[in-house]
Amino acid sequence: MKKIITTPRLYLREFISEDAEAFYRLNLDEEVIRYTGDKPFASIEEARDFILKYTAYQDYGIGRWAVVLKETNEFIGFCGLKYLREKRYVEVGFRLLKHFWSKGYAKEAATAAVEYGFSTKVYPSIYAHTDVRNTGSAAVLEKIGFTLQKEIIYDGVEAFLFKKDNPYLSIKAVDSKETYPVRHPVLRKGRPIEDCAFEGDDEITTLHLALFFKERMIGVITLIDRRNPTLPFGRQYQLRGMAIIEEYQRKGLGNLLLKESEIRLTKALTNIIWFNAREKAIPFYERAGYKTIGERFEIEGIGMHHCMVRTLY
């Protein structure tokens, strides 16, 4: 039994096969699953089979966790984080046995799960979905700081999309040499620290942005006032040195630096961002709205690249 989170009255742990009977009862209650789109398990054994085949913990390091009362060690429902692969973000969800509604347990468990997602897993944002008729769940989300984004169709039904941003993340401008602790291990690993310097780093028009998790710098990006001769139009800035410390990669944090760069350059009346992207990074930038132009080429000592561009306005 692996405990993940402890709160004043609860603890959240990974599912175990012994949860099958309580899980079966949870999904058997029509009121509990009214707005979930789920069907009851056909039997306790089907619930046990679901638990034994549940691989989210191994696949993503997160998942739905059993919510257990500290005082009695009683399973009262589940709460946790789920990675939605098709949407490329994490959501929080919760479901409790009806007997334990209106006691603040859903709020307590969801607050702890979201805090774990922000402080331990360092997700930039966490989302949540509720059926538009599910006023109870919407109220819990609003109480723990989620804000309504829009109405969507989720699993074929009308739903509200909620979101909360990580309060431990911030972006600020830094000097060129302050970027080296991130540039060096990510972009120039094994090479002299002097190789972290870029042409144009110290121009007055150059902007260096750093992403901080609490007090630690975990990502950087540099924007240089430079025209690409194959793009003879508009005010242009070149993006260079985009890097996220390895342990914080694949969480969507690079998008925060990209979006902040776009906001600042748009305000400065720059309408073109361009850069030379490593081949392995192209899918990331394409998802962010950038397009490749021209033929691929090699940068000596670094590898194959493609020029990418985005028009801001």
Keywords for this structure?
15 strands, 313 residues, 2 domains, 8 helices, alpha+beta, 24% helix, single chain, Aminopeptidase
Write a compact overview of the structure shown.
InterPro entries: Acyl_CoA_acyltransferase (IPR016181), GNAT_dom (IPR000182), N-acetyltransferase (IPR051531). This protein has 313 residues and is an alpha+beta fold.
Written overview of the protein:
The protein has 313 residues and is α+β, with helices and mostly antiparallel strands. The protein has two domains: 3-165, Aminopeptidase, CATH 3.40.630; 172-311, Gcn5-related N-acetyltransferase (GNAT) (Aminopeptidase). The protein is 24% helix and 35% strand. The protein has eight helices and 15 strands. The chain has helices at 20-28, 44-52, 56-60, 105-119, 135-143, 180-187, 253-267, 282-287, and strands at residues 3-6, 10-13, 64-69, 75-84, 89-96, 125-131, 147-154, 157-165, 169-173, 207-213, 216-224, 236-244, 272-278, 291-299, 303-311. A seven-stranded mixed β-sheet has the order 9-10-11-12-13-15-14, with helices on both faces. A five-stranded antiparallel β-sheet has the order 1-2-3-4-5, with helices on both faces. Strand 14 and strand 15 (303-311) form a beta hairpin. Helix 1 packs across helix 2. The mean pLDDT is 95.
